[in-house]
Specification:
Rossmann fold, three-stranded antiparallel β-sheet, seven-stranded mixed β-sheet, 2 domains, binds S-adenosylmethionine
Length: 271
């Protein structure tokens, strides 16, 4: 009898062959747990013929992405990270006539809107473009709407204050029927788009790439490939930001960057 791990590997292989959706390089233990839950919730047996039937149903891929990727995020998640951005990076960004920022793995837009608020408060948002991308179309749909459950707002506004936010946080949204609708002016300079870090390379040259709490779900080899792609798309002297449990230390790009704060903020250096 096939073990469950073999069954999941086979399922991931089929997913790749049929849709080009490649989860094979993700970090295994947590991916296996989530795929296994997806298989049992969708009553998928170990028989590949049954998978094909489900693969062909409308919405299968979106449902799979929604259930298998981890989408948790917060506005101003890790407030110290955002105060470090204000102190160390915004003065650098302010020197450019136009600023390009990429936020890959943006989930439902929480991180992109946090940047928008900080850049606005620093008076430079009008000359910035934030490319906020994710693999999950459901997340992107939510991100474009900029609507968040009201019960998350207590956390967001506490984070905002700890990050050094200058305004009354409630000026950025209107509360309505259990939801907070964020101000349309915040999304003016954000482009939300679908992008898969595993199979698509980047498309621009950025002064800042902030990819936080995404690489942690990837295996080493995949992290190395994605970091190399980031490196090729960060301008000389630009910045790379990662999540608190992520690092470039093991990677081939480590000698081209200097960590500039106790947050995972790396500055590209000329060699
Ligand atoms: C835990 S969330 C991180 C959200 C935000 N960056 C933060 O730090 O709060 C991880 C996000 O990465 C996205 N993701 C996972 N695999 C991806 C891939 N191959 N390409 C692009 N995004 C991916 C998921 O859909 C999810 O929205």
């Amino acid at each position: 009898m096939r073990s469950q791990v073999q069954e999941i590997d086979r399922f991931l292989e089929e997913l790749y062959l049929k849709f080009g959706l490649d989860f094979r390089g993700y970090s295994k233990p947590s991916l296996y747990r989530r795929v296994s839950r997806f298989l049992s919730e969708n009553k998928l047996s170990s028989d590949p013929a049954a998978w094909i039937e489900v693969f062909e149903k409308d919405g299968f891929l979106d449902r799979f992405l929604q259930q298998v990727t981890v989408n948790y995020s917060e506005m101003f998640r890790d407030p110290k990270f955002y105060s470090a951005i204000t102190k160390d990076i915004i003065p650098y960004l302010a020197t450019f006539p136009s600023v390009r920022i990429w936020v890959p793995g943006c989930a439902a837009g929480e991180e992109a809107y946090s940047f928008a608020i900080m850049l606005k408060e620093a008076g430079i948002y009008h000359k910035c473009t934030i490319y906020a991308t994710d693999i999950d179309p459901h997340c992107l749909q939510m991100a474009r709407k900029a609507i968040y459950p009201l019960d998350m707002l207590r956390t967001y506004s506490r984070n905002y204050l700890l990050a050094g936010g200058k305004e009354d946080f409630s000026t950025y949204y209107t509360a309505n029927y259990g939801y907070a609708q964020f101000d349309k002016s915040l999304s003016e300079r954000i482009i939300f788009a679908s992008h898969n870090l595993v199979s698509e390379s980047a498309f621009n040259s950025f002064q800042l790439i902030s990819c936080r709490n995404v690489l942690i779900y990837f295996g080493r080899e995949l992290q190395e490939m994605v970091l190399d792609n980031f490196n090729r798309n960060i301008e000389g002297s630009g910045y790379l930001c990662l999540g608190s449990r992520e690092t470039i230390q093991f990677s081939g790009i480590k000698n081209q960057y200097k960590q500039i704060s106790d947050q995972k903020i790396y500055k590209k250096i000329y060699l």
